[in-house]
Design goal:
Largest sheet: 6 strands, mixed
Structural class: alpha/beta
Distance between the termini: 30 Å
Strand content: 25-35%
Strand order of the largest sheet: 8-7-6-9-10-11
Radius of gyration: 18 Å
Number of helices: 6
């Protein structure tokens, strides 16, 4: 049985007076070679909420539009510009984007849009910009800001994409707070990083808890393949919905598995119960 890796995007709709609670989980699946699996059915999948099996109401291909918050931490080199072009081209038909750049603080340079001219201008600002001092605390703060934005906006499929050359290894007291905000935002955290970057608990554990992918790269030659895996993960997802019985409290902990041999599911392991 292939067990969940991480989390995707989860929503929870609670009703008053202990009425049934409906929960929705976005997830992706890959075969033994890492290729996307797109033909799973409800009979292939098991969902556990708080360790207990639940009855699946529906499983289908995910079609709801995404909001992708991009955070770039490249020391001002512009090294991820090409990867961003590829990822946007691969997802823009069903997504809009915001951009934050660390300099060293996380600066919002473009709010959510799918307008071609606005995206082109934002990508232009992702090129070489001069040397910027790395600050792992600001990577954490940028994630907190993006997550708070999603909490306020209440979008259906929130996604955070961090492209980092430095990582987030830090003793910052903000890590637990940021992980909690990430959970509450329902955002799926995806990370593309240099393989020698030191990952702390946010960028190391966040993708696992939120259903995102972690893509280490040795250098620029690895960017196209890593970018395509991010694209496949975002664009070839499933959505599964289940309803808890009357009076059953939703759990923070969920697990999604499949009986298909050689198939791995990337899905949430920690959900908001709000």
């Amino acid at each position: 049985m292939a067990v969940v890796v991480g989390n995707s995007i989860v929503t929870s709709a609670a009703s008053p007076n202990n009425a049934p609670v409906t929960r929705t989980i976005y997830f992706s699946a890959t075969d033994a070679k890492g290729a996307p699996v797109t033909d799973l059915t409800a009979a292939d999948v098991t969902v556990k909420d708080g360790g207990k099996n639940v009855t699946i109401d529906k499983l289908a291909a995910a079609t709801a539009p995404m909001h992708i918050a991009v955070i770039v931490d490249d020391n001002g080199s512009g090294g991820y510009q090409g990867a961003l072009v590829q990822i946007i081209q691969g997802t823009v038909n069903n997504a809009q984007f915001s951009f934050r750049v660390l300099n060293p603080q996380a600066q919002l340079v473009q709010d959510f849009t799918k307008d071609f001219d606005a995206l082109k201008a934002a990508l232009g600002r992702m090129g070489p910009r001069g040397t910027a001092r790395p600050d792992p605390d600001q990577v954490i703060e940028g994630n907190a800001e993006a997550s708070k934005d999603f909490v306020a906006k209440k979008v259906e499929r929130p996604v955070i994409l961090v492209l980092t050359s430095n990582g987030d290894e830090t003793q910052s007291t903000n890590v637990d707070r940021t992980l909690d905000i990430l959970k509450d935002s329902r955002a799926m955290l995806n990370v593309m990083m240099l393989s020698n970057a030191t990952l702390g608990r946010l960028l190391g554990d966040g993708p696992k808890a939120s259903g995102g992918r972690s893509e280490p790269i040795g250098g620029s030659a690895g960017l196209p393949a890593a970018s395509q895996r991010i694209i496949d993960h975002l664009t070839k997802q499933f959505v599964v919905t289940y309803t808890l019985p009357d009076g059953t409290k939703p759990s923070e902990r969920v697990q999604v598995t499949t009986s298909r041999k050689g198939v791995t599911i990337t899905a949430p392991s920690r959900l908001s119960v709000g």
